Amino acid sequence: MPQDPLPVTRVPRTGLPAHALVIGDPARAGAVAALLDGAEEVSHHREYRVFSGSWQGLPVAVASHGVGAPGAILLFRELADAGVRTFLRFGTAGAMRPGIGDGDLVIAEAAVRDDGVTHQLLPPEYPAVSAPEAVLALQQAARRAGVAHHRGIVWTRAAFQPGLIPLFSYDGAGLAAIEMELSALFVTASLRGLVADGVLIDDGVNADDGVNADELVDERATGGDDPHREAVAAGIERGAVVALEALRLPAREEPA
Length: 256
Known about the structure:
By secondary structure, this protein is an alpha/beta fold. 30% of the residues lie in helices and 27% in strands. A five-stranded mixed β-barrel has the order 5-8-7-6-9, surrounded by four helices. The longest helix has 22 residues. The two termini are 31 Å apart.
């Protein structure tokens, strides 16, 4: 008898690879999955589209989680229930630190938990941190590929568009980029004993434009800088290969 899928994402309860790339956009997940050998769609329910295949001999899952941490954390949890043990989030972000250019990679070392969900699960003092081995694997893969990359703390922000309440300003705090899901992945991984990190592509809305934190969120929400420019698209193509290679690097050192 076929097994019942997991309830929210409809992902199979068993049979997924232990290594996964998690991506916001279902269409982008499909494009990245096309880079795999023997790729096949495992499930597709709501925003959760899941593929399996292999990269350079390593079994890999590629899954989409949609926009925002509350929905994304449901995918992270159910993928973990289904056997995924290493997660890399691959997405776009707005750079907050001067010197990060369009299409550059940002490798996350930790995240500010402004995600709208984890504060309801854990005290605010609980950290959202990446796995050091995943940070080093991403950095090594980027160096080997000759891809511009930067390391730092990212701001996971729940609200995509600003409202009437002024944002707390992280200007001057040295944050590398702003995005919407990564701290939820880090917290999930820490609670489950999993390996996780994220690599983000600067989509061109950044601190070099002289915007403050409130303006940065507004710029990303309104498309003040077009995130679909050629430099960003090229960065996404390069970043997908870097992320897949980073999954493979620490896997080669795992005990048989």
